[in-house]
Design brief:
By secondary structure, the protein is an alpha+beta fold. About 35% of the residues lie in helices and about 25% in strands. The chain contains 11 helices and 14 strands. The strands form 4 sheets. It has a 5-stranded antiparallel β-sheet. It has a 4-stranded antiparallel β-sheet with strand order 11-12-13-14, sandwiched between helices. Helix 5 packs antiparallel against helix 8. The radius of gyration is 19 Å and the shape is globular. About 45% of the residues are buried.
Length: about 290
């Protein structure tokens, strides 16, 4: 591994000053970054550990919604009952990213900032309408999570900027969410297809009043499936509705052929997974 310097600032301003240099990388969990440095995929002169910054370790769930610091570990999230109850898609994601050791280091914020096309967290964040709070030399700005990734391993962060937290709107009554991925075998952690959904049903829990569907691993970046989301509004909660949503999803994807799946296979699985994840989301609402 190439040598690099290491800093662990304890203030947001201190981190921004360090990051506002050339060849510097932030470290939230390091589960991707350290391996990328080791194999030479990333070259850096300085690694800035952001784990000790208070603003990046906030985890609050209240009437205003949820604030999730970019450095909060997946393990901490899975052990927070309010997240599982009100934002279960995030709990789903954090439960399947690696084993307990990885979950104790990895963060949702770090997973988002790696900006992989097959990232597990991003479709769930999109479904849950998360907003990215970004700080940098020019102050703070906010970006809807569906606009954060700009391509494979690319995002909107500029030099000196870092993701501080993710903000979620309050969970509506008769609502829930779910994330599921398809992988060829349990040991293979990279999603072939990933689907995150969030639904709000009417008082009878038989008609869909709001819907968001995020798709991952089937395009250059995870994205909001607008046509699927719009179709679902005012549709009955049944197998036919969810099957048609899956059919629409198949028309929106542009997957690649690789050793994990062909274009034809990924396209087919997209429809199946959308149908199943929507069904599970509605069941969570009806069983709550």
């Amino acid at each position: 591994m190439r040598d690099f310097e290491y800093e662990a600032p304890q203030s947001l301003d201190g981190a921004i000053q360090l990051l506002n240099q050339e060849r510097v990388k932030p470290l939230a969990g390091g589960t991707d970054l350290i391996d990328h440095i080791r194999i030479g995929r990333i070259e850096t002169d300085l690694v800035v550990d952001i784990k000790k910054i208070p603003e990046l370790n906030v985890l609050e769930v209240n009437a205003d919604g949820m604030r999730l610091g970019a450095a909060v570990s997946c393990r901490r999230i899975t052990q927070t009952a309010e997240v599982k109850k009100l934002y279960p898609a995030i709990h789903d994601v954090c439960s399947i990213i690696g084993g307990i050791q990885i979950q104790s280091r990895a963060s949702v914020g770090g997973n988002l900032c790696t900006s992989g096309a097959a990232a597990d967290s991003t479709p769930a964040l999109i479904a849950l309408r998360a907003t990215c709070v970004i700080a940098g030399p020019n102050g703070e700005r906010q970006v809807p999570v569906e606009d954060f990734c700009t391509g494979p391993a690319a995002n909107v962060l500029k030099q000196g900027e870092l993701l501080v937290e993710l903000r979620f709107p309050p969970a509506a009554q008769n609502s829930s969410s779910h994330y599921r991925r398809f992988i060829p075998r349990y040991e293979m952690d990279i999603a072939v297809v990933g689907v995150g959904t969030a639904l709000t049903l009417d008082e009878s829990q038989s008609v869909i009043k709001a819907a968001r569907v995020g798709l991952g691993a089937v395009a250059p970046k995870p994205f909001l499936a607008n046509k699927v989301s719009e179709f679902l509004i005012d549709q009955p909660v049944n197998e036919e509705t969810f099957a048609e949503a899956g059919n629409i999803a198949r028309t929106l994807v542009s997957p690649i052929d690789d050793h994990r799946g062909t274009i034809e296979f990924r396209t087919h699985v997209t429809g199946v997974l959308v149908q199943r994840v929507l069904a599970e989301t509605s069941q969570r609402i009806q069983q709550s």
